[in-house]
Amino acid sequence: MKHSAIKTLKRYLNIYKTYLRFTFINMMTYRTSFIIELIIELGYIAWLVVFYEILFANVNSIAGWSRPEVMFLISLSIIFTELMTGLFYVWNTRVIPERVRNGTMDFFLLKPIDNQFSLTAIQIYPSSFLGALVGLFMLVQTLPELNTAITLTRLFAGSIIFLCGIAIGYAIMTILSSLTITFINANFLVELPYQIFKFSEKPHSIYFGVLKFVLFLIIPIVFMASVPADVMVRNGTLWYVPMSIAITAAALFLTRKVWIILVNRYSSASS
Fold first, then answer.
1. pLDDT tens across 22-37, in order?
2. Would 111 be classed as within a structural domain?
């Protein structure tokens, strides 16, 4: 059983590496397109930074978060958004509705690999990874301005929560995109995750009552950037670590169940 699981994992890693190689070959072939895509990504980052710089020219803090702490959060949010865009969105979940309409989804379902993997995670968008590096650079630049030093324990705990946030983000994107298999005219569903993710780029301490409950447990987007930043630079409780792991496991389990149910209901557009 263990040997079989390792063999399967190696097979999928090799498949993923093959797709990566073709992606970078394509990127070098269409360099102008890549440069334009990169400019768009950098423009989004610049707009976000300018907005918060203007905001902090008029206020000293947001819900108790100082400017360096918020800029650390924004940098982490940029890294998260760019990774989600590059790993799962542009060439994966975003194009599922189109593949359903034109019947090309059939080819993915007939391939001898897991169809959830091939439709939601197999291709990347390279420009976004350079955007993530810009976010990482910004994050490092904010470190000297922070009032507290980040300990290895805090860095490790925050990193675990951040990775869980990526898995939760993938689950949300996959569930919403999979709904377009049944609801063909619901293309807005593939755009909805990015509207939801915007809640995570703000300090989670601004949310109260029912909204806080929803953003922590029902649609747990605070674990994508806000909670990891809180744990790393504001001494947030370490109980967020087991909480994020449990929520991630539940989200991925639910995603798999929903995906299987909806794919089984798929009716080929080419038939």
1. 887 877 777 787 788 7
2. yes
- Whether the per-residue pLDDT at 183 is higher than 70: the answer is yes
Q: How big is the chain, counted in residues?
A: 271
Domain assignment present for 128: yes
Give the model confidence (pLDDT) of 105-164 as tens digits. Answer: 999 998 889 999 999 998 888 888 989 999 999 999 999 999 888 899 999 999 999 999
d(CA 168, CA 175): 11
Q: Identify which of 138, 131, 130, 143 has the alpha carbon closest to the alpha carbon of residue 49.
A: 138
Q: Angle CA(66)–CA(169)–CA(34) in degrees, nearest 5?
A: 90
- Please spell the DSSP secondary structure of the chain, one letter per residue: -HHHHHHHHHHHHHHHHHHHHHHHHHHHHTHHHHHHHHHHHHHHHHHHHHHHHHHHTT-SEETTEEHHHHHHHHHHHHHHHHHHIIIIITTTGGGHHHHHHHSTHHHHHHSSS-HHHHHHTS---HHHHHHHHHHHHHHHHHGGG-SSPPPHHHHHHHHHHHHHHHHHHHHHHHHHHHHHHHSTT-THHHHHHHHHHGGGGS-GGG--HHHHHIIIIIS-GGGTTHHHHHHHHS---TTHHHHHHHHHHHHHHHHHHHHHHHHHT---TT-
**Site of tokens 């996959």:** 174
pTM: 0.92
Max Cα–Cα distance, the chain, nearest Å: 63
State residue 271's pLDDT score. 52
Domain count, the chain: 1
Classify residue 31: in a domain, yes or no: yes
In a domain, 271, yes or no: no
| Lookup: tokens for 118 | 């091939």
